[in-house]
Design a protein that fits this description.
The protein has one domain: Hotdog Thioesterase (Thiol Ester Dehydrase, Chain A, Roll), CATH 3.10.129. Helices cover about 30% and strands about 30% of the residues. The chain is built from 2 helices and 5 strands; from the N terminus they run βαββββα. Bound molecules: coenzyme A.
Length: about 160
């Protein structure tokens, strides 16, 4: 059963093992945190096991430094039949100052699956607040734009050996 939780924030401390030679957190580590937050949010909304179908629009706005407190916030902005579109923003701060700044944002699409790994229905989200309606409409526009990008990418997949 869904507990209907629409958003959540996961927190991490950037450790020395997370950083690259320049002392900044690896993009891959940030993407892992994003995936974890998207999964937890989708599982909490749907009450089901979920898998990542798509992650995109990722923008690394500012670096995260070792020792930073990292907050990965996930929020459901659209539900399809089996998919949940989750907006993610990543903020970081020096924990001594708690001066949060945006470092990354993106959209992740999670799909709920049943015990056989097949997509399964998720509870519908119906926005009522103007801000939520705007986010939902933006998710729909992005979905249509992705269809065009997907068709364009077919040319690349075609030549994969
Ligand atoms: C996600 C997956 C189950 C979808 O399978 P599928 O055969 O395309 O299933 P469907 O056509 O029924 O699509 C299921 C949902 O996924 C969505 N979806 C599928 N491919 C998508 C893509 N490239 N981008 C965005 N959404 C996508 C569909 O729109 C659909 O949503 P809806 O039910 O809300 O309309 C399948 O592609 C898969 O198993 N992928 C691997 C996932 C994985 O291993 N993730 C870990 C990270 S590597």
């Amino acid at each position: 059963m869904s507990n209907g939780q629409r958003s959540m924030t996961l927190r991490f401390l950037a450790e020395p093992s997370d950083v690259n030679f320049g002392g900044k957190v690896h993009g891959g580590i940030v993407m892992k945190w994003i995936d974890l937050a998207a999964y937890a949010n989708a599982a909490a909304w749907s009450g089901k096991y979920c898998i990542t179908a798509y992650a995109g629009g990722i923008r690394f706005v500012a670096p995260i430094h070792v020792g930073n407190l990292v907050e990965v916030s996930a929020k459901l902005i659209y539900t399809g039949t089996t998919s949940m579109h989750i907006a993610i923003d990543v903020q970081a701060s020096d924990p001594k100052e708690l001066n949060n700044r945006l470092t990354t944002h993106c959209i992740v699409i999670m799909v709920a699956v049943d015990g056989d790994g097949n997509p399964t229905r998720v509870p519908e989200w119906n926005p009522t607040e103007p801000e939520d309606i705007e986010l939902r409409d933006s998710a729909i526009r992005l979905m249509n734009m992705r269809k065009q990008i997907g068709e364009e990418m077919e040319a690349h997949v075609k030549y994969l050996k």
